[in-house]
């Protein structure tokens, strides 16, 4: 398995795990603040991080399952991943920054160790999500260059970066069309012995008489 293809479930599993830890930490803080009271701004920040943790945990599992089982579904497309990761990154960045600001301006506060841990996991999730956003953006740009746009499958884009073989150019002269030559880029896995293997999502043909159709080197 290619490194980039493995990066998606690994990174998503990491943010899901960190979110589970954050649920425990922020949930305990919210419970203590509800029972004993405390500074309103700290309560607001921890409650928001509890929400961000639950949001990330639930939808993170959803996207891991979709990537592994239904990668071709539009719900798990590059665009869908990009929107969710961007929104979630904003949640964690805002929550971590708000909590950090309160901890800097209020040096004397209860639950200091717990609050510091809450802040640390919030920043770690924000950093991981920023990295994911970059990877998804690069995948989307490559998918757009291939003619599929941001609605393409993220699984295909990840696998293509490391698994794409060198393409072979094949020239075909259709019968009864003098002067017309079709030029294909195809995978070396497709040989004369396997003429019926599908070529996936051809690009629209260019102008006559020399047509160039680029195909993805993926066989399913």
- Broad shape: elongated
Mean pLDDT: 75
Which percent band covers the strand fraction? 5-15%
Structure annotation, total helices:
5
Q: List SSEs in N-to-C order.
A: HHHHHEEE
Radius of gyration: 25 Å
Sheet with the most strands, sense and barrel status = 3 strands, mixed
Number of strands: 3
Q: What is the spatial order of strands in the main beta sheet?
A: 1-2-3
Helix/sheet category: mainly alpha
This entry's quaternary arrangement is single chain
Which blocks of ≥5 consecutive residues have pLDDT under 50? 157-165, 188-220
Distance between the termini: 16 Å
Helical content, roughly?
Answer: 55-70%
Please explain how this structure is put together:
By secondary structure, the protein is mostly helical. It has a domain at 1-34 and 42-152. Helix content is 62%, strand content 7%. The chain has five helices and three strands, in the order αααααβββ. Strands 1-2-3 form a three-stranded mixed β-sheet, with no helix packed on it. Residues 157-165 and 188-220 have low confidence and may be disordered.
